[in-house]
Amino acid sequence: MNTTVYPGSPFPLGATWDGNGINFALHAENAEGVDLCLFNSIEDLAEVVKIKLNERSHHVWHVYIPDLQPGQLYGYRVYGPYEPQNGHRFNPNKLLIDPYAKAIAGTIQWHDSLFGYEIGHPDTDLSYSTNDSAAYIPKSVVIDPHFNWENDKAPNIPYHKSIIYETHVKGFTQRHPDIPENIRGTYAALGHPVTIKYLIDLGITAIELMPVHHFVRDSYLADKRLTNYWGYNSIGFFAPDVRYSGSGVLGEQVTEFKQMVKEFHKAGIEVILDVVYNHTAEGNQLGPTLSFKGIDNASYYRLREEDARYYKDYTGTGNTLNARLPVVLRLMMDSLRYWITEMHVDGFRFDLASTLARELHDVDRLGSFFDIIHQDPVISQVKLIAEPWDIGEGGYQVGKFPPGWGEWNGKYRDCLRDYWRGADSMLAEFAERFTGSSDLYKDDYRRPTASVNFIAAHDGFTLNDLVSYNEKHNEANGEENNDGESHNSSWNCGVEGPTDDKLINDLREKQKRNFLTSLFLSQGIPMLVAGDEISRTQGGNNNAYCQDNEVSWLNWEQADMSLLRFTRKLIHLRKEHPVFRRRRWFTGLPFKGIGLEDIAWFLPEGIEMPDENWGHTFAKSLGVFLNGNAIKSVGPKGEKIIDESFYVIFNAHYEPLNFILPGEKYGKEWMKVLDTHENFFENEGDRFKFSEALLVESRSTVLLRLVKP
Questions:
Q1: pLDDT digits 0-9 by tens, 342-384
Q2: Can you give the pTM of this predicted structure?
Q3: Is residue 54 part of a domain?
Q4: Contact at 8 Å (CB) between 490 and 560?
Q5: Helix/strand/coil (H/E/C) assignment for every residue in 50-87
Q6: What is the pLDDT of residues 533-576, one digit of tens each?
Q7: Residue 496: pLDDT band by 50, 70, 90 thresholds?
Q8: In whole angstroms, what is the distance from residue 149 CA to residue 92 CA?
Q9: Using CA atoms, how far apart are residues 186 and 243, in angstroms rounded to an integer?
Q10: Environment class of residue 284 by beta-carbon count within 10 Å: exposed (0-12), middle (13-18) or buried (19+)?
């Protein structure tokens, strides 16, 4: 191996192949020395070449080595003080992953040597470990960045036309009988024609992937023979996780990921990544030394002012990355830009995004992280979605993110669940959530598309389990069923003292249809979690983060085809009618030139909702008129298109109710399109005259379309 070295350049950070050799650059402000370690293969237990980096520019250590090729394995050893009480945890006995590594070969094999201190020592992390960790930590990989994108173009789906599908790379295809067995659970399987066709037929416009940044299987899970299935434990913010690669570990995973994205784009489907920039897999003061902690602990993490030995933890994982510091902000922005420009992804969902906004202690929605994104010409142009909370004080920030951001609307989820289970709740809130949550977003000049609506997500019960279990069943997680949400708020499926198994099952099925109908008829961006459309169950486990098995994987051979057909029709109904996906807020005022308001609310008696009724906690039923004439869009040839009008009836009451249809001015004749009680969804249904009574069964939704003269 060539050991001739040149000074190289401090930028770009990471390992960069230029066709003639490789430039290595590592930011380590407080370090006193850095060694670059090169390895011949992943089986090597020790480096074959150790090169001392003598060049340092702007806190960046760098070197250039000619003739090295892509596929080169490497790691770093960093020298400096080991003073945990002052925030420094340098230990050159620990081989470290490059924070800018574009690929990582293999996974961590847990061993005491991975910790900077002596396991079992009475001084715990104040002690110092001399054991070498190189044999147990995966090596960073230099990649060849070249890829034939074939004029790949981003679909650029407008927000108001977006339908998001949250899924897991492995779980979606691991049990799919029509996917070749040798690639199931991989990026290649997700980009396979079988997968693409399913998603096109379903009608989604964007696939949101749970974390694909290289992550760590927690040691306590390994001890219990479990794993971190969800992947919210990142250690490599540039590297697609090697576990989802079906083609290799020496950079092939990068090519495979790019090919997957290219296939999605050919199908007009966007790729959104769930990213975890709020913390790393190194945990608290008792966690391992894998990368950042050993490179420059004080420059990467939020440490306590009164004792820098300890970490501030707004995430519940032991540490919080310090988004106030330039080196961390640059890491995050470089990572985001890399995934956009080099990997061609179309957006990001930020896990525990409130953590990234924290300046000092309070959550500042105009924190440095968001300021930089707002002015960045690349990052600001893709879809940006926040999980708008963390576990710290004041961390629940739904509705408080800057313009241009979408938010997982937890208030929508909670309100819709309360409404359909019959809990005491005000119709006014249900109306707000159904129409895009103007109370959360309108005053900040945001639009209904700021609200990402969902009933279920990866975290919690699946839709099927939500209506099937009153209590969680997380026993398989090895925590004596103490993890996850405490209960399911006593669903009982809305059955009063049920004794008939068929009655219970029918109501469960109807409640699933009610939830899906509410979701796809609501203003905002709907998000469906993978498998809810086929009645996926986790057996009552509402925290399946560690279940990389049949508990979490989609069971395609037991797919609920009836619910799948219903969901497909719902999604395509939404896509066909702009009245369900408005770009602007409802006004409730008469529409110019037409005379009717763009939306109107009715009591079951057929009269418009009086103001005093909005505050009733016992009221569970209402009708909604959606004026299609208030929606004008442009067709593919520039022609003006006026949408149809609809009337939606929601009855969450435990008994059937007669609904009087609105008077003649709203329409002379209505046709039933959907009825969740009958599992009815057709283009041609029963017709009803204005002011006619329509019986709506208990806990049901009925959708009517105005019959054109």
A1: 999 999 999 988 888 775 456 565 578 888 999 999 999 999 9
A2: 0.96
A3: yes
A4: no
A5: EEECCEEECCEEEEEEECCCCCCEEEEEEECCEEHHHC
A6: 999 999 999 999 999 999 999 999 999 999 999 999 999 999 99
A7: very low
A8: 41
A9: 8
A10: middle
Residues labelled catalytic: 351, 387
Contact 53, 173 (CB under 8 A): no
Compute CA distances 135 → 37, 89, 96, 550, whole Å.
13, 20, 12, 32
Which of 581, 580, 602, 576 has its CA nearest to residue 696?
602
- pLDDT digits 0-9 by tens, 614-653: 988 778 999 999 999 887 766 667 677 789 999 999 999 9
Domain that holds residue 119: 14-141
Kindly state whether residue 52 falls inside one of the protein's structural domains.
Answer: yes
Q: Percent of the chain having pLDDT more than 70? A: 95
User: Which own/partner pairs from 634-640 qualify as long-range (CB within 8 Å, at least 24 positions apart)?
Assistant: none
- Which residue bears the tokens 């800018």? 100
Asked whether 168 and 545 are in contact (CB, 8 A), the reply is no
Q: 393 is written with which tokens? A: 């004080």
Helix (H), strand (E) at residue 684: none
Nearest to 515 by CA among 597, 603, 579, 434: 434
Last residue of a domain, one of 141, 169, 199: 141
- Cα–chain center distance at 424: 30
Biggest CA-to-CA distance, the chain: 89
Look at residues 99, 124, 141 and tell me which one is the last residue of a structural domain: 141
